[in-house]
Write a structure and sequence with these properties.
alpha/beta, Urease, subunit C, domain 1, Diaminopimelate Epimerase, Chain A, domain 1, TIM Barrel, 3 domains, 22 helices, 25 strands, 20% strand
Length: 580
């Protein structure tokens, strides 16, 4: 039955609403406002009150809400959008790495590399304790392990531990002095089970080459001297600052309970494993956490449902911290695709080894773990690079859906290879595709370290953004910082062009910028389970806003890549503007 409200009551309600809206404390007008709400056209202006969106509309509608105390900002035609949201990041670790010697994925000739490391050491930024640690090393170095050894195992380096920390987070290299310190030698390698032995590069006589992957790399990483709390707090501040500068006001921390000394890939967490969570709490207490942090707690890939209790105890320790939420857990289903690591779980064997990588989860029990997570109200966020890892993760979620049809917004991140049979399953199972599309480029990683070792069919579906999108999957944007830049504008442009120094990586998988704007706003908010609070500009949601220096709807992809943020607002307060 149609409801009838007397006209006088309508007028009274409208007047009451206007009275409430008259409390607007910030108006941004004369702009191009992208709300991220599907189907809504661009607006001109936004009103903010008490840190939340009060109204979105025309200049006239919004200016009518101003009073003598309202701050007015003329956007002068600039684009205003919701704050960007990153669905997979390690920002505190990334910021810490940036404070020391960092190659940022650059591959230098080895003679030049040695001189650069010497200069970094002389500048006082290369040492962690007495160990020289270089972050951001490209996987392109690992094929040169023998050549690295010829330089860094003799002369001035013979007694000096040297570590190259791989930018992918899964690999690294250590010289003989460091290997000796952590007791990695031929006898150890020979004693290990085949799986673990494969994580330590070695010759026919089991002598280690220095290259390390997964828990082999953990043997070195876990023995590096821990930074002080003060250093890490500064890193956390820098993490917030950098994200706000590129317009990011929320992120999923994909390993929040892991500390610098933890063996990440074999971590069996206890309630004492709190990782970076105390840093976020300290920032929040100081009023410095100008971002929403959705903290994921790592659990072991072979965890049983009962093992989740310890993670719940960790979450309870940090309940009530402003801007810190706990949507669920993170699990590694496999490793990395690139040679020589090849620890990603693939359907077709790698051509060189005839092996199918390493599937870390147990397909028989993973579904039960998903059910147990859902019973606690948690999502699962799965690291899956290879197509076999993606399939088995989806199989586990399918089992959970068979018991409880209502979809829980689990997510799978990375998705370097996805078999076409899986495309439609993302929508069917309500699984979000968290993608780092800055990686969708023809470069050394894809052309030299992957292409020769996988089938033609598999290679065609690297980072298959358009195929997933057209199959109805919810695509969410992510950086995996420090593996790549946290700048979403770089990734949004790259998702369209897929161009790199070696050509274009399968142009058929290009995805348009409008879809990517959604991927970094409302879709990403869904992955963080914060879509009722952030992700779009509608009344009642938090006023996380960014103002851009160019019309991102009209500029070329090349210009889009270089987009700069002019202002970032968090809860209605400006938290970033470039120095004048």
């Amino acid at each position: 039955m149609q409801r009838f409200i007397p006209s006088l009551l309508v007028a009274a309600m409208a007047f009451s609403s206007m009275e409430a809206m008259a409390a607007a404390d910030l108006l941004l007008f004369n702009g191009k406002v992208y709300t991220a709400e599907p189907g809504q056209p661009q607006a001109q202006a936004v009103a903010v009150a008490d840190g939340k969106i009060l109204k979105v509309g025309t200049d006239a509608e919004i200016k009518a809400l101003a009073d003598a105390d309202t701050q007015l900002i003329d956007l002068a035609g600039k684009v205003l959008m919701p704050g960007m949201i990153d669905t997979h990041s390690h920002p505190v670790v990334a910021a810490y790495d940036s404070m020391g010697a960092n190659l940022y994925d650059e591959v230098k000739p080895l003679a030049e590399l040695e001189q650069w490391i010497i200069a970094q050491d002389q500048d006082g930024v290369a040492r962690v304790g007495d160990i020289i640690v270089i972050s951001g090393a490209s996987s392109g170095y690992w094929e040169q392990s023998a050549e690295l050894g010829k330089i860094f195992n003799q002369g001035r380096w013979a007694e000096q531990p040297v570590v190259l920390n791989g930018i992918d987070g899964h690999t690294g290299w250590a010289n003989n002095a460091m290997l000796a310190r952590v007791k990695i030698d031929a006898a150890l390698v020979q004693s290990l089970p085949e799986k673990e032995r494969n994580y330590i590069g070695h010759g026919a006589d089991f002598t280690p080459s220095g290259y390390l992957a997964e828990n082999g790399w953990d043997r070195v990483r876990s023995q590096l001297p821990a930074p002080t709390e003060a250093v890490m707090l500064n890193a956390a501040r820098e993490a917030v600052k950098v994200n706000n500068q590129v317009g990011v006001t929320a992120w999923m921390d994909a390993a929040a309970n892991a500390g610098s000394g933890d063996s990440l890939f074999e971590l069996r967490p206890t309630e004492k494993d709190v990782g970076v969570l105390p840093l976020y709490r300290k920032l929040a207490e100081n009023g410095e956490l100008s971002a929403h942090v959705a903290a994921l707690l790592i659990t072991h890939p072979q965890s049983k449902p009962a093992d989740l209790e310890v993670l719940d105890k960790v979450m309870q320790q940090f309940q009530g911290v402003p801007n810190l939420t706990f949507p669920g857990i993170k699990i590694f289903a496999d490793g990395v695709m690139e040679f020589p690591g090849q620890t990603a779980a693939v359907l077709d064997p790698f051509k060189n080894s005839l092996k199918r990588g390493e599937l870390l989860i147990d397909p028989k029990n993973f579904g039960q773990l998903a059910v147990a997570a859902e019973q606690r109200g948690w999502i699962m966020h799965v690291h899956a690079v290879g197509d076999r890892a993606v399939r088995e993760a989806l199989n586990g979620f399918e089992y959970a859906r068979s018991l409880k049809p209502a979809a829980v917004p689990h997510s799978i991140s990375h998705l370097q290879l996805v078999n076409p049979k899986e495309f439609a399953r993302f929508k069917q199972l309500g699984v979000i595709a968290s993608m780092q599309l800055l990686w969708a480029t023809a470069e050394t990683y894809t052309e030299e370290l992957v292409k020769p070792y996988v089938s033609v069919a598999a290679y065609q579906y690297q980072y298959p953004a358009r195929s997933l999108h057209e199959a109805g999957a919810t695509i969410a944007g992510a950086s995996d910082w420090p593996v790549s830049s946290p700048n979403p504008w770089n990734a949004i442009a790259q998702a369209s062009t897929r161009k790199g120094p070696m050509g274009v990586l399968n142009a058929k998988e290009s995805i348009d910028r409008q879809s990517m704007f959604q991927a970094y706003t409302l879709n990403a908010a869904k992955a963080l389970r914060l879509d009722s609070q952030i992700g779009s500009l509608v009344p009642g949601k938090q006023a996380d806003l960014i103002v851009l220096d160019r019309d991102v709807f009209k500029v070329s992809d090349e210009e889009l890549f270089d987009t700069q943020v002019l202002r970032t607002f968090f809860a209605g307060k400006q938290v970033y503007a470039p120095a004048s």
